[in-house]
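hey so i finally got around to running the thing on that chain from the lab meeting. sorry it took forever, my laptop kept dying and i had to restart like 3 times. anyway pasting the input first so we r on the same page abt which one it is
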Amino acid sequence: MLDRPRRALSERQGVLSDLATLDQALYEAVTITRTPALDSALRRLSAAADHSKISFAIAGLLALRPGSTRRAALAGVAAIGVASATANLLGKRLVRRPRPHRAEDSPFPGRHVPMPASASFPSGHTASAVAFAAAVGPAVPAATLPLGLLACAVGYSRVHTGVHYPGDVIAGAVLGTGAAAVVLAATR
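ok and heres what got predicted. didnt touch it at all, straight out
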């Protein structure tokens, strides 16, 4: 009977170890893949997503229209606030995962953005972009696909530019979805 909890713990540790290995392998696959046509665009996108500048600009445009579109913009901004606070004030402080190591002899240093000083897990950029998209989408269906694709691109750009592991981005997306759900539930 006592072996069951030990076995379950061992299995969980094995799964976590395998996920960490897969996360590292995916990150390394991205870092060694030559993509000159994408490097500059993804570096610019990653920088433009700093402090949710893209989402705030879109929210400003949406807010120009009265009614449900303006309310969607406000919900999107509120979701960014919840996601950003949760990722940066809670998630990064609790998990404290180090940022990826970028070798001095990186094959593609031109794709990098400055390495943030904060912890890696979860991706705050991704959490905020997904939160905005998920909060705005239900009220503005025509924006759902473009905002969703933009959020995915922001998340991938963080891996491509060498500042996050794929697992950080996935966690950020889950967190962003949850933040949007909380905001939408609170506004109903």
